[in-house]
Amino acid sequence: MTETVKSITSPSKFYSGRNLLPKLNDYMKTYGDHAYIICDEFILERAQKEAGSAIEGAGNKAVFEKFNYECTKEEIERHRERVRGTGCNIVVGIGGGKTLDTAKATAYYEKLPVVIFPTIASTDAPCTALAVIYKKDGSFDEYLFLPKNPDIVLADVDILAAAPARFFAAGIGDALATYFEARACYQSHGDNLVLKKPSDTALGLARLCYETLLENAVNAKIAVNQKVVTKAVENTIEATIYLSGVGAESGGLAAAHAIHNGMTAVHSLHKVQHGEKVTFGLLTQLVLENAPIEELETVIQLIKDVQLPLTLEDLGVKKFEEAEWRQVAELSCADSDTMGNMPFPVTPEDVYQAIVAANAIAESYKDK
Ligand SMILES: [Zn+2]
Fold it and tell me: pTM score, two decimals?
């Protein structure tokens, strides 16, 4: 008999709101009084001024350390030594996905609580119990599966909205796929990211993620282009940081992310954001499913309205090389990937043909 345990896993606490950086101490103080803060260079000075002075003003201590651009085993080891040397009892990560993953891994190995403070809303890194480890040359090394999600995630909407608008849109692209992948995984009784079955709660959160984006994402993107924060921006951030992360971890992934992973082999896409590739993976998944035309058109309209790349040409593919895209299709169907969570068998040939069709459909909607 196969075991069917369902799950919902998430950070213990998620807060989103305005101007949270100076209030970091208020949120972390019940977990630790001596913070080791791994911080991206661009925000280091500001974090020291706003968060550091508040921590010290409250009688606690903070050690700031610049993140060295890549989440490698060496970088994690460097931070672990500093944590032990300074006697810190809580780890904080302030920055992009790699910084946050480094903080999660450092805290895990040192058995300390971790506070996650994202500065861009482009991926699911903040809320998940996963760290992606890279090699020194920037290539993928391994996934580090963590026994628990972060203790606290703080989404400062002012900082997230001030990041380049392209990152904000990429986060919308990543979040847009969440519901469709969770739905496929639910239908196929596939495994979610913690290797349990998707719960109804997870599917519900994934659906809320999609509905929140449909209601808010377009106006949120317009506001972010103007560097301002509105209710639509706040709601979209809740979807891209929390609902998308928890919805994907507990609801499971399917074709869209498998195709994304295959697309990492395409050289001309190396500068493309994760969420931008996932968006094209989603279009391909909808073609594989032969999704209702209204659904496809709703998704395409949203992609266009938030100014995400729609076609392969938009993504920077100058010439479509059949061999390259057959390789993408092949990779996306690897046993280790999530194509097996589709509710019907999918072959590399099916994926290749769906990629060609998805791109042609995208082209046909480009000027509509
Ligand atoms: Zn993703």
Answer: 0.95
Tokens encoding 113: 């609580």
pLDDT at 265: 86
The CA 257 to ligand 1 mean position distance, Å, reads 7
Distance 264 CA to ligand 1 centre (A): 13
pLDDT tens digits for range 78-104: 999 999 999 999 999 999 999 999 999
In 109-158, the DSSP E strands lie at 114-118, 130-134, 140-145, 152-156
**Cα-to-centroid distance, 351 and ligand 1 (Å):** 19
Whole-number average pLDDT of the chain: 96
- Supply the DSSP symbol for 106: H
Q: Domains in the chain, start-ordered, CATH in brackets?
A: 6-161 (3.40.50.1970), 165-365 (1.20.1090.10)
Environment class of 351 (CB within 10 Å of its CB; exposed 0-12, middle 13-18, buried 19+) = buried
